Amino acid sequence: MPLHCGQFQLDLSRPLVMGIVNVTPDSFSDGGRGADAALNHALQLLDEGADILDVGGESTRPGAASVSEQEELDRVLPVLEGLRGAPVPLSIDTSKPAVMRAALAAGASMVNDVNAFQADGAFEAVVASDAALCMLHRQGDAQTMQQQPVYEDVVAEVMAFLHGRIKVAKQFGISPGRIVADPGFGFGKTLEHNLTLLRELDTFSCLGVPVLAGLSRKSMIGVLTGRGVDQRVFGSVAAALLAVEHGAQIVRVHDVSGTVDALKVWHALRYQ
Ligand SMILES: Nc1nc2ncc(COP(=O)(O)OP(=O)(O)O)nc2c(=O)[nH]1
User: Fold this and answer.
1) How much is the pLDDT for 31?
2) 252 tagged catalytic
3) CATH number of the domain enclosing 121
4) Domain containing 221: what range?
5) Alpha-carbon dihedral of residues 97, 108, 260, 252, nearest 10 degrees?
6) Domain Pterin-binding spans what residues (predicted)?
7) Which residues line ligand 1 (CB under 6 A)?
8) Overall number of domains in the chain
9) Nearest one of 191, 21, 3 to 94, comparing CA atoms
10) Which H/E stretch holds residue 245?
11) pLDDT tens across 11-26, in order?
12) By percentage, how much of the chain surpasses pLDDT 70?
């Protein structure tokens, strides 16, 4: 079943690459860009083969300072306007309903919410659109999530949360064909939790919606490789490949070109 994403029907017969476009001064990786630089970066990711562009104006990394609605709008809207008419869907990475609405009006056709549309008015902000929704599991919030993540059974608990959010989305009349689920690597998880989720990612297919995995340049890659955040391309490409091998249909990455190449090899091996 394709992913309905505004005027786009995304073919999921091959894994899709979501390119990260951070318009933030403080993202854990590749932040520090203003709108012009972010727009140029987005165009570069398009050239590298991104299937979706995910524009974010607020860092979601552990301990990140929150950003006002207006500040977030001031960051993302110029980039979305500059990308209007792009040949791929534009996604807005936000948890604020007002930013969702404004981004959809500015041409976004996907809303990526690390808070899984739990804010008051979040589902209402997207229901009337035909945008896709990505719902992520997070334990705690940016300030608390990495202090001491604890689960009885991380897969079962993440699965139950996502199942519950999908159920609520459907109650709002949002069709499953618009929904993407994301276990939230690094969002209130230890390294062991992340590895368990990656090993058992296939089980999330029971949710009946595409799975998105965001592992790119995250601290788990740093711990496993001993590399600093700007030296994690190879580890991140390996992680994206493993996520796809374990059932992810979309991978959210900083390094589009390397990921696209790796997935071309994977796809040929699997299907040619
Ligand atoms: N669906 C989804 N969205 C996400 N948004 C932000 C980040 C954090 O990564 P990044 O955007 O590079 O960092 P920052 O939030 O500091 O800008 N990770 C995910 C993720 O894993 N899945």
Assistant:
1) 67
2) yes
3) 3.20.20.20
4) 36-56+73-271
5) 0
6) 15-264
7) 20, 22, 24, 27-29, 56, 59-61, 93, 112, 114, 134, 136, 182, 185, 212, 214, 252
8) 1
9) 21
10) helix 233-245
11) 999 999 999 999 987 7
12) 99
